[in-house]
Amino acid sequence: MASAAVWQGLYLRCLFTGDFCCGTKVGVTHFFARALVTDDLQEIAAILRFLVRDGRHLLGWYRGDADGLYQLIKAREPQSTRPIFLVLTGEMAGWMQAIHEIASWDIQHGKWQPDQFHFADSSYVKLFLYGQTGDGRFELVHDHYPHIRIFRLSDRASVT
To answer: Exposed, middle or buried, 53 (CB in 10 Å: 0-12/13-18/19+)?
Structure first.
């Protein structure tokens, strides 16, 4: 199981080496962190779908247009794919500072954007603490709160 030290290590590696998300380099870690801290459950669903379906391939062509990339991610139609599960744990709350730092990196301008996301409004809080499902975007398939909650991402195109 990952720990706060792993997220902190990823953050420090990003900060000092440029790997994962710093500068104009973009990686899966940055997008997964952004998914956990965004306040928009539609955005977390879109990011997860993007990463599973074609994100690793499309990230290779990224050349500095962050707004265009985020619009592409959100505009992609939900298509049937293998099931996508999101596992959230109570332990993750302790990792959120490092996750927030990774997500707050401005991939277009290569600098930090402090106060871009707020923990109290994050998708992690909405899904894990409150059990919100984003109007059917997520289905709670295992509930052992406060230890773990597992959600299945809906692949229904009718979800808006």
So the answer is: middle
